[in-house]
Amino acid sequence: MQGVIKAYDPATGDGLVMCDTDLADYELAANALEGSIFRMLRQGQRVVFDLDESGQATGIHLGSEVDMGTPGH
Prior knowledge:
Blueprint: E1 2-8, E2 15-19, E3 25-27, E4 46-51, E5 57-61, H1 65-68
Antiparallel strand pairs: 1-2, 1-4, 2-3, 4-5
């Protein structure tokens, strides 16, 4: 899935990502940044993510132009 970081608190790791396809907000899982190049996130940052079994966003990573659906790629 892909979306935009809606909110992120670097002190607690709490945050929300808004999904592009259904405009739903998903809370970040406690381990959302594990194995990622990210150490923190900023509001408005575009990301690709997965949902864990509890429905929280995890596996936050940058998408390629193909992943993001950029026209021409």
